[in-house]
Amino acid sequence: MSRRTAGLIVAAGRGERLGGAIPKQYLPVAGRAMLRRSIEALLAIGELDCVIVVIHPDDAPRYADAVEGLSDPRLLPPVTGGAERAASVRAGLEALEPQAPERVLIHDAARPFLPASVALSVLAALDEAPAAFPALPVVDALWRADANHAEVAVPRDALWRAQTPQGFRFDAILAAHRAHTGAALDDVAVAHAAGLATRLVPGDETNFKITTPGDLARADRLARAAMDIRTGNGFDVHAFGPGDGVMLCGVRIAFDHGLVGHSDADVGMHALTDALLGALAEGDIGRWFPPSDPQWKGAASEIFLDAVIARVAERGFILTHCDVTLICEAPKIGPHAAAMRTELARICRIDADRVSVKATTSERLGFTGRGEGIAAIATATLVQA
Q1: What sign has the CA pseudo-torsion 26, 32, 38, 39?
Q2: Annotated binding-site residue? 237
Q3: What pLDDT does 2 receive?
Q4: pLDDT at 19 over 80
Q5: Which pLDDT band holds residue 1 (cuts at 50, 70, 90)?
Q6: Residues that bind 4-CDP-2-C-methyl-D-erythritol 2-phosphate, according to the entry (predicted)?
Q7: What pTM does this model have?
């Protein structure tokens, strides 16, 4: 049976051990804010019904910048945290209470590489215990030291390194935080003080916490190594019909025919829109803008391309290059190719030197060779921002 589950990200700290002019959760990791990556990691867990972030009162503008373009409706407005971590978590839990969750995952903003499998293991453990968290066994030798001098060896048997997200039955952890006073190492410590039995599940080495400059450098390398690069292809055809011009790649060309279509029949822009949707694996232009819908009758194809470019950004990608080939015997495309590149670049919000528009004929073969219409092929490359 489905149970309502919430996610809570603690991002109110100052990150003083890392140093720097801004709190570490807003530092870029391979070009994207650490906090945004942590939010996206939680949102990637389908079992979560809502996610809330607890921020420092001074960080509202930084937070807005970090989540710009992230339109997942499950992400709730942020709340302000307290002076200590425990106070911040309590503020987040109080804000979540109206959502009536049964379970909650509490995650560190500085752990941007959370594998979904770890979070799911924590949630599964809550079937048998009111609290659970991922952990890794300590494998290195441990020594207690006085300054730089080793003093006493510490047995590592039964010692574990705690990670997040730490999961709880919601009512139990909210009551525990309301009863807790002072600071706490983490939320498991708060749960323990309240007498809540706690399960351990296997953690993951990639789910490390960014604390030092070395951690940040490691995170940057890991993010870049895992960069998502996608290519999509699009193909479209429109027949000639009555008219005195055609719209191709956003440029009107005077001609003795028009193109027949429900919208303005811009075959080049349609092919490019399909290529972008193909790279996102989100269907095609007909699914997004069905010709059966009267609102698209006669619509400028710029509307379609602009909406899909916005979707590309929402998914965390940028368009790095696109190539459109128009296939026809006439009209002549060459004199207009530069203007087409400029117009597509404007709509796609990239430089014109990343846009290619070219033309070819089909050597008088097929419907294009017979002058019955125009075909277009497009390719688009997306890279995770």
Answers
A1: positive
A2: yes
A3: 53
A4: no
A5: very low
A6: 236-238, 262-263, 284-286, 360-363, 367, 370
A7: 0.65
